[in-house]
């Protein structure tokens, strides 16, 4: 089915343009015509259209535990004490709970400027750690939530075998994650079936971390789907780096690069604590640094060396990870502000006499699209018709256009001031509200009241 859309102003690969006519066929843009009259367009969009932002890293179920980990642990609080809270929370979840929580997170992603998601999915089994009759039952819950909300999906079933470096046994809190190789292959087959009916969905693979798999698992996992994305957590925490050095004699990213050839299929999540050689090696490989600035700040991870990485030509994107706050603009703002706080300078991601917001949005769209393995992240022929529009009447951007409006939307609004969100040519958010917001929220509320009462 072919339709025509008209955008009052839009960010195209070559820059901002006005009166942009899009021809969309089966969810993909087939033609882009700037300076076109709106006559004949099926849908017309006011405001300023931006390519939809890919969310390259999320654990959807964690939206349900947002805010539950802010009490200080003893003797101190860290990522590792946060992880214990997470283990206790997921002990309660069944597939229907996961679907309800994921749908709520996905609605918030769409209302927050994300139009696609790479879901790093490691919650597989029942409460006792046994596989469901359909081993991909939890993956089906994620796919059903994406179907309900209209969010584009790259599903990344996670291989998780061990509890720590040195192939240490898994602990009780990890029992719902663990699969050996034969079960993981069945999980991939079931996950492929789960997303089969989703429009333009993609399946990738994800060794959880160097802590959770054997080194020879890395190449094996990547070979199972040789043309699809490969994501891995790496070098998020200083103790992780110290453990890697103690047990293997090498830093995590150094160990990863010595074990498998990195390329554009790979997305290294967090990659916070890097040597200069590791940082430049990732940049030269074509792999994507998957940054989750709000979660990394929440967990006290540290600050990714974004400026020198970008100067080396490194690709990056952003994700909402633990989903404590879901807003594409807020992730980009936190990324830029972290660099400013460390270096005590301003507008660090921008080129000289250029827009910081524009530089961040375009880079994160490109890196996120690569990490998702899909033709997204640009309003251009051959790309999925995914875009968002900024509300031109919002106080933060009144009277502004182009990069000035985008800068203000990211750095001067409490949340990204969105009006419309379109995914695959289909409108899913209008006037800032998702079309299924009320029904999704009601189901989420029932699940959360029951879980928290328990």
From TrEMBL:
E.C. number(s) listed in UniProt: 3.5.3.13
Cofactors: Zn(2+)
Residue span(s) of domain Formimidoylglutamate deiminase N-terminal: 5-41
Domain Amidohydrolase-related: 48-428
InterPro entries given in the database record: Amidohydro-rel, HutF, HutF-like_N, Metal-dep_hydrolase_composite, Metal_Hydrolase, Metallo-dep_hydrolases
One GO molecular-function entry: formimidoylglutamate deiminase activity
Source organism superkingdom: Bacteria
Protein keywords: Hydrolase, Metal-binding, Zinc
Protein name: Formimidoylglutamate deiminase
Organism: Bosea minatitlanensis
Organism lineage string: Bacteria, Pseudomonadati, Pseudomonadota, Alphaproteobacteria, Hyphomicrobiales
């Amino acid at each position: 089915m072919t339709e025509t859309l008209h955008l009052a102003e839009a960010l195209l690969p070559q820059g901002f343009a006005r009166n942009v006519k899009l021809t969309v066929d089966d969810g993909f843009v087939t033609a882009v015509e700037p300076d076109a009259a709106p006559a004949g367009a099926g849908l017309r969009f006011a405001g300023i259209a931006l390519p939809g932002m890919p969310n390259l890293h999320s654990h959807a179920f964690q939206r349900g535990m947002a805010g539950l980990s802010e009490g200080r642990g003893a003797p101190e609080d860290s990522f590792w004490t946060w992880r214990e809270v997470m283990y206790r929370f997921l002990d309660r979840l069944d597939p229907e709970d996961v679907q309800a929580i994921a749908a709520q997170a996905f609605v918030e992603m769409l209302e927050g400027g994300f139009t696609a998601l790479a879901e790093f999915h490691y919650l597989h089994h029942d409460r006792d750690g046994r596989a469901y009759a359909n081993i991909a039952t939890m993956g089906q819950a994620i796919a059903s939530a994406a179907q309900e909300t209209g969010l584009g999906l790259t599903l990344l079933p996670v291989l998780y075998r061990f509890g720590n470096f040195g192939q240490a046994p898994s602990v009780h809190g990890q029992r719902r994650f663990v699969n050996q190789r034969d079960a993981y292959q069945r999980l991939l087959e079931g996950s492929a079936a789960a997303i089969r009916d989703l429009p333009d969905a993609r399946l990738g693979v994800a060794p959880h971390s160097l802590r959770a798999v054997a080194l020879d698992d890395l190449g094996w996992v990547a070979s199972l789907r040789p043309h699809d994305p490969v994501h891995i957590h790496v070098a998020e925490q200083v103790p992780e780096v110290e453990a890697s050095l103690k047990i293997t004699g090498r830093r995590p990213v150094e160990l990863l690069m010595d074990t498998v050839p990195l390329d554009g299929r790979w997305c290294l999540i967090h990659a916070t604590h890097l040597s200069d050689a590791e940082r430049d090696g990732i940049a030269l490989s074509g792999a994507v640094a998957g940054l989750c600035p709000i979660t990394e700040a929440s967990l006290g991870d540290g600050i990714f060396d974004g400026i020198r990485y970008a100067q080396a030509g490194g690709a990056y994107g952003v994700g909402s990870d633990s989903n404590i706050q879901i807003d594409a603009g807020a992730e980009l703002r936190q990324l830029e502000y972290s660099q400013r706080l460390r270096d005590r300078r301003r507008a660090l991601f921008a080129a000289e006499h250029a827009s910081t917001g524009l530089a961040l949005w375009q880079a994160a769209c490109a890196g996120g699209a690569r990490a998702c393995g899909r033709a997204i992240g640009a309003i251009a022929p051959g790309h999925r018709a995914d875009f968002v529009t900024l509300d031109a009447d919002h106080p933060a951007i009144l009277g502004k256009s182009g990069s000035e409006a985008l800068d203000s939307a990211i750095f001067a609004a409490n949340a990204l001031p969105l009006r419309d969100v379109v995914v695959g040519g289909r409108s899913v958010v209008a006037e800032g509200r998702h079309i299924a917001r009320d029904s999704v929220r009601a189901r989420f509320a029932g699940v959360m009241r029951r879980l928290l009462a328990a």
